[in-house]
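Sequence only, no structure available. Ideas?
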Amino acid sequence: MAERSESESRKLLRRLRDLLAEPGAGQERLDRITHIIADSMHCEVCSIYLFRDDDTLELCATEGLKKESVHKTRMRIGEGLVGRVAKTSSPVNTGDAPAEKGFRYMPETGEEIYSSFLGVPIQRLGEKLGVVVVQSKSARQFSDDEVYALEVVAMVLAEMTELGAFVGEGEALSALHQQPVLYRGATGQEGSAEGRVWLHEPRVVITNLVGDDPKKELARLNAAVDQLRLSVDAMLTMTDGQDKEQSQVLEAYRMFANSRGWMRRMEEDIARGLSAEAAVEKEQSAARARLETVPDPYLRDRLHDLDDLSNRLLRILTGQGADTGAEMPDNPILVARNIGPAELLDYGRKLKGVVLEEGSVGSHAAIVARALVIPLVIHADRITTEALNGDHILVDGDQGIVHLRPEDTVAAAFRDKIAMQAAAQTRYASLRDLPATAKCGTTIALHMNAGLMADLPSLVGSGAEGVGLFRTELQFLIRSHVPKRAELATIYSSVMDAAKGKRVAFRTLDIGSDKVLPYMKRVDEPNPAMGWRAIRVGLDKPGVMRMQLQALIRAANGRPLTVMFPFVAEMDEFRRARQMLLDAIQRERQLGRILPSALEIGAMLETPSLAYAPKAFFELCDFISIGGNDLKQFFFAADRENEQVRRRYDLLNTSFLCFISHIVARCAETRTPLSFCGEDAGRPVEALCLAALGVRTLSMRPASIGPVKHLIRRVDLTELRQVIDADCAEGSLNVRAAVMDWLARQDI
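Reply:
I predicted one. Tokens follow.
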């Protein structure tokens, strides 16, 4: 029976291949396909439903139902048995369809009451495209072989839909990869850019879906899998146990590459008529579908591993490597599922923007995007399945929106926005050498954030008075091994050289949480943002911190040195870290090395507990920098990686402003210099309110310095403080409305 089913399956696939090789319009092809399927499976009805939008299926072809219902019969996802197949991405097989929960009778199709129903999803690599259905009057359950045969047909339909074989009239038959698409993601880095898509990992295109000779296809698969296994073994040998986390991933690769279950399923696919690459992609699509329904993060990671392994196998089979020979377009905007910091740095400033399906606001990619000053949108779901190299694309990092293949009116409006921003930057350039002095006479020092040598040219161009935060972890994140002390000293010295005497505040290694070094053993924590990270790692593993501090001292080479420790939660942590730096100074003195001409040692206030530290802490600190991003996260108990909650909370919330005022007062009491570093420092209205509360130094991305300075120079901070205090006294929960009303009345 199995041999007969396999033979029938191959016969059906060949009939489909021959049909698709013939010329014909999309609708004609679909009509003939439904006839072939119904005839081969001995059913009265075969129907193909395709998505016309994300929520609606449209009947696009049928054998056995009324032809006039084609393109008129529609149903929502989840509606009826067809909608259930689409929603769950799983087959529905029943011998008594009317008795099934959710059954919907569609009289407009001329449908009789068919007892038997088999529907399978048409999908490709997790992307839902539609449903193919067969129905029969006889009350029978379709066999496993028949279900499998229809799944194989659905896979072929998905590939041919992707390749544009069914383009025709009606929304559901519109050409793929040609329509405008809007993606609402999240902001990873602000800014706007227009350009052309450059896919980080171009999709593998499969054109030979049907295999004429199963033995030949099986031999091709086995040869490719052997090559894959050898490459995984070679990668494991190269790591040689040095990188435990990478070794674990590669061990998972090896486990899948040697999985008999995976091989057996692909062998069965080939036996039923698929080519080797089609068999690989069929199993990959099934894994992607399972990925969407698995809540367990460990299992999701393993399915990601299988997905990546399948891509590697497909590239071996098709010869389509990452380098396809395509030329990077002008104004490239990188589109990827995710990307590491080193890979993103390889592209460098050639990129005009980045769009990711995954990622987070604190991810390595986001840090590098900020350093390169290019807009980044994250969580643009499934853009890699829709975008093609060279597609026109607009990236609005401010709103977290991406327009793929935009209409002319959208593109024109977007260009107007970019032009206005460029004109504003030109106006701000005229303020570059002027101080940020308000009308009341108060001067605010504006510094920039940095993390790469590529940032430093912005120090002069932006008008920044110094670097308020230099993120030293980037030099660790982009390497596959711990950098040597001499390497770091050279880098830090180059940073000081580029600063040309301006102050640079070096933040010691802030790793852990979302910033895990490639060569550092991952620690599984239920809440990593509040776990073993930053100064906690440095104090528990003093070797790396001591090495970094020595590199900073040597880089100073007789110049002033400013060091601050991140994520300090209590005075003793700062005291111990400070002593490590003083001990390192003493050791360098004993070795006869040149010492810094001046030394500032500060702390980042990112935990509410530190605001209530003893007075002695504030006296011990040479300066304090408020780490606004983390402080706001912990103050409101709102994970800044969680889009559902992070935007709910505002710096201009009365409670948070009162807390900032408390910190300002504590620092004023001991005359400890205070700065604010974070996203809010670069937002003009928020920056203005911080200045009004008494924060005299702000550190932000270079592009924000002009807008912030422009607004500060046009207002009276004393008057704004009165507005804030009055609104707080009246019991307002948030002062934004009062501040915006006051700004509207100013002559700005």
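The radius of gyration is 31 Å.
Hope that gets you unstuck.
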